[in-house]
Amino acid sequence: MVKLKINGQEQNWDGDPDLPLLWFIRDEIGLTGTKFGCGQALCGSCTVIIDKQAVRACITSVSDAAGREVTTIEGLHPTGDHPVQKAWRQVNVPQCGYCQAGQIMQAAALLTDNPKPSHDQIREAMSGNICRCGCYQRIENAVHLASTGV
Amino acid sequence: MNILTNPSRLRGFEKHIKIENVSRRSILKTLGLAGGFVLAAPVMIRPSFAYETGAGKMPHGVVVDPRVFVSIAPDGIVTIIAHRSEMGTGVRTSLPLIVAEELEADWSRVRVQQAHGDEVKFGNQDTDGSRSTRHYLIPMRQIGASARTMLEQAAAKRWGVPAGEVKAVNHEVVHSASGRKLGFGELAADAAKESVPSVEGLKLKNPKDFRYLGKGEIGIVDLHDITTGAAHYGGDVRLPGMKYAVIARPPVTGGKLVSFDPADTLKVSGVEKVMEVKGWPWPSKFQPLGGVAVIARNTGAAIKGCNALKVTWDDGANAKYDSVAYRAELEAAARKPGLIVRKEGDVEAALKSADRVIVGEYYLPHFAHASMEPPVAVANVKGDKAEVWAPVQSPGGTREDVAKTLGIPEENVTVNVTLLGGGFGRKSKCDFALEAALLSKELGVPVKVQWTREDDVRHDFLHTVSVERIEAGLDKSGKVIAWRHRSVAPSIASTFAAGTVHQAPFELGMGLIDNPFEIANLQCENPEAAAHTRIGWFRSVSNIPRAFAVQSMVAEIAQATNRDPKDMLLELIGSPRIVNLSSVKDPWNYGEPYDSYPIDTARLRKVVELVADKGGWGRSVPKGHGLGIAVHRSFVSYIATIVEVAVDDKGKLTVPRVDTAIDCGTYVNPERIQSQIEGAAIMGLSLAKHGEVTFKDGKVQQGNFDDYPVIRIDESPAVTNVYIVPPASPDTPPSGVGEPGVPPFAPALINAIFAATGKRIRAMPIGKQLEA
Ligand code: FES
Ligand code: FES
Questions:
Q1: CB A117 within 8 A of CB A145
Q2: Nearest CA to B53 among B592, B600, B731?
Q3: Global ipTM
């Protein structure tokens, strides 16, 4: 039995301990904000935050997260008003929106680690997150905006 | 082979379906929207306005009926139906916004409800071909104006004043002479009893009074939900008792299952069952490819189980498909005469008499859509009823196909449209929803079918692969007197009809036969090419190879004659005029009447001049940088792009700046146009730099973003500037936005690389070509 916390709530799992956290979160817990894009840590759609670090839930097993605090997009802020979320809306970042939960979680982790990232640091930190719609210019602007106060 | 003889529903092919008023009217009499007060109105099918569009010729045409699209609750909340699919263009916001504008509704009191697939009720729902605003601007205005007029009539009656004295303003109707006001909610019940003004008699708002249209100040309706994870895509649907399925499909298109050994799969924790999925023979249209499904309690277990499967396949007729050999075949075909599809003057003689002939041969490989959300669908089939939830661009077609595949009546099928995590044409084909329906029928429980990224890349309806060969004959003065363009590529029609070797009119009409250049001797040919995999629509379709070839050739001629590429381009476009396409049997023209949507070279010239001006064409750039320009008309819009590149001494390519000018006629939401053009630059850069799907022994060699890379933020253009040409008048017909940004990007980039390095790229992707 694996025990972990997701968005502050205790969760137990007695199935396959190697199950990727992504599918535990989506299919077993029913939090569908975290998305599947590649399953190979190549796209960032599944990004969640574990102990302040952005991690790819598609290659993290449930047992890897045992005893740890997992935050998904649903738990980032109680009313959805984390500075990154606010900046995202101000800049009208999304097109289809599918990659955006992962982008926002990645950006939130970046700003925790580095509250005033430079242009190059933003591009570097966000380069693991693919947006096939191509919202990159706005993603960069929104991260910058979030870092300077929304 | 005439594609129009194919009986199946061919999305995007013009079927010229007649509008059948009588039956639709009788059906609509029984309709009503739940949960709100429905305005009653007769059905008006054909919008009448200053211009005609091809909307009426789409399957099931247009429905202009406020009862279908608008309901008003007693508390004043206005619900507007979005009947097209949202895949990132903003259409789920833009079309309801048009209704709200004419209705004088306050957007903050409007709710948008997604239509399920029902084209008899809603009219055509195929969200493709960059058609939504183009076909629905006027119908949506008429729907809003009808509802507004009925509210005004109801208020006038209540007050006993002439209807001409009252006016709807911002969610209420006011009688200014007496200062009386009634809210929309208070009037809805009475308004529903009003007869509906005829379309001809409708008073549409004066565009100068628009509060929302053309302004770009309204964010998309899903913005908040997207940022909080609450927005629902195909995979986010959860039903009680639902099982999760992942499918192993034949690795070669047209292959078949021989046998499978489920033993190892059944040992995987969480796997419950392994079963065959029915496949259809090649060419399989939109039907499933077949294979073996692993059914599990969650997707992770199903994927793991699928990887453990041992399957034997019969690879079938396409087992030898090899991209290297196929490219050589296409090149050989392009060097020989082909079917003539446009002929003006005498190209043969003009090429012979030319002072010099410049030849360019351009290769563009297959690419996969790789929308961020891989195909996914949920189905719940119970007896002779089926309900499907899926991110589909073709809700109506999906409903038809589910009914046909299950052998049940169409009325028994409900297709719920979720948000689409990108579409780009892939989700116009509903094979993944049909798989879910087949599995649910067999298992008797709801089933979600999830495609992995590898499934998506390996079993896509790929963008075609092509060789475009252009020969330009110049006289002594350097003037182009002859132009022969041969286009060789397997056709999308091959996915529907065996033996297809020629491209369909809708493919020829994308940048080949609609060439706008003023050249006396001009000939277009289409040599034969057979398909060995599923070919499908990819954002902007055949325009990608055509713009790449034509706009590269312009720059090649400029170089050969020592001209400025922009001047060369304008010279070839020639005088401002309407291009005469009378020599073309079927000019297609994106399904639009040529009178409303002619090829207008004045507009083409204008976007070139605008982007040159705004983008600083001719400005001096640092060493290793270069500027390239290209223009292309597609989806009846005019777009020109300037790309600035930087190539360092190791051949590393970056894009410091992109400038694009677009003339898309009358527009609704300039902010979303801008985002589409920004995105088109990224997609154009992706396909130019990396995009390539190749085959060996009939199998796709790529699978995920490691071997099929797309542009990431660290390679993306530093800035993309967008300039939108204001419409000449409010009656200027709207034209496409979602796709037209893509075609000019790659040639502008390639031309910029030439300016920076002197290297001319004639085969995509660029890959390592600059490193040599
Ligand atoms: S799904 Fe995890 S990185 Fe792509
Ligand atoms: S918004 Fe569509 S993938 Fe990023």
A1: no
A2: B592
A3: 0.99
Tokens of B299: 């997707």
The 8 Å CB, 24+ separation contacts for B729-732 are B730/B207, B730/B666, B731/B49, B731/B50, B731/B51, B731/B666, B732/B665, B732/B666
User: Tens digits of per-residue pLDDT, B543-560?
Assistant: 999 999 999 999 999 999
Q: Which ligand has the minimum distance to the alpha carbon of residue B420?
A: 2
Q: Who contacts B369 (Cβ-Cβ below 8 Å, separation ≥6)? A: B422, B423, B424, B425, B426, B456, B460, B463, B538, B539
Which residue CA neighbors atom 3 of ligand 2 most closely? A131
Provide the pLDDT confidence category of residue A149 given band limits of 50, 70 and 90.
Answer: confident
A29 touches chain B (CB under 8 A): no
- Burial classification of residue B477, based on how many CB atoms lie within 10 Å of its CB (0-12 exposed, 13-18 middle, 19 or more buried): exposed
Indicate which atom in ligand 1 lies nearest the CA of residue A35: 1
Per-residue model confidence (pLDDT) at position B66: 94
Q: What's the CA dihedral at B737, B739, B745, B746 to 10 degrees?
A: -170
Query: Which residues from B are below 8 Å from A22, CB to CB?
Result: 300
- Residue B699 tokens read as 């199998």
**What is the spatial distance between Cα B456 and Cα B421, in angstroms, rounded to a whole number?**
13
With tokens 């298992």, the residue in question is: B443
Point out the residues of chain B with pLDDT beneath 50.
1-48
Yes or no: say if B41 and B30 are a contact pair by the CB < 8 Å rule.
no
Contact B515, B475 (CB under 8 A): no
Rounded distance, CA B133 to CA B21, Å?
24
Residues B266-300 as b or e (16 or more Cβ within 10 Å = b): eebebbbbbbebbbbebbbbbbbbbbbbbbbbbbb
A76 pairs with which residues across the strands? none
